[in-house]
Amino acid sequence: IRMTVADITEISKKKSKVILDTDLCFALYKSELRTYKIEKDAEISQECYDTIMNEVLLKHAKLRCMNLLKSRDYTEYQLRIKLKQGVYPEEIIDAAIAYVASYGYVNDFRYAQNYIEYAGNTKSRRQIENSLASKGVSKDTIEHAYEQCSEEDSVTAEEELIHKLLEKKHFDREHATYEECQKMIGFLYRRGFVPDKIYKAVGRCEE
């Protein structure tokens, strides 16, 4: 099977995007273009294609994952986004993530646990759940991580968090006006706390 290079576009001074007639895209260093004789309208043999995919691109993708994970934790979803931005084909992304996951370098459950422990003293559960969901962590994984953190007492109870925020805002429940109560309820609701816990702490406003 032979493929044809439909186009080559520059990504940076060092890299270019190769587009095949099959619509598959990948990025190579310009030195690699010369090594594998990749030129517009040129044919690529199956052997050359396999070498580029299984040796060159997979090596680059693994290194990219490792370099990213050196500085901080990433979820699988976040790594996928980073690799897609690097114009890696889907099968290379799958293989690179499977590689780092096999060594425990990427673990969504551990990520969720660490995030809950870090943010659990300042953010509501809803805020944390929304943040983790936006990072691609599944609902079941978040639930499991919360259960683990609760067992280890590594997350502050929401009632305690609300009281800390009320103290920080110098809210005096006994002497607060209707407007002050309403303002505080709105503030806590926007922070993701559930109404029953808010009303328990602030009281039900009466004009």
Please give a quick description of this structure:
59% of the residues lie in helices and 11% in strands. The protein has 207 residues and is α+β, with helices and mostly antiparallel strands.
Question: How does this model look, in words?
Answer:
The protein is α+β, with helices and mostly antiparallel strands and 207 residues long. It has helices at residues 30-35, 46-71, 76-85, 90-102, 108-119, 125-134, 139-151, 158-168, 178-190, 195-202; strands at residues 2-10, 15-20, 25-29, 43-45. The protein contains ten helices and four strands, in the order βββαβααααααααα. Strand 2 and strand 3 form a beta hairpin. Helix content is 59%, strand content 11%. It starts with a strand and ends in a 5-residue tail after the last helix. The longest helix has 26 residues, at 46-71. Strands 3-2-1-4 form a four-stranded antiparallel sheet.
The number of helical elements comes to 10
Q: Outline, from the CA principal axes?
A: elongated
**Rounded mean pLDDT score:** 88
The radius of gyration is 26 Å
Unreliably modeled segments: none
Strands, total number: 4
Secondary structure class reads: alpha+beta
Assign a percent range to the helix content: 55-70%
- H and E order: EEEHEHHHHHHHHH
Q: Into which percentage range does the β-strand content fall?
A: 5-15%
**Cα distance spanning the termini:** 79 Å
Largest sheet: 4 strands, antiparallel
- Walk across the major sheet and give the strand order: 3-2-1-4
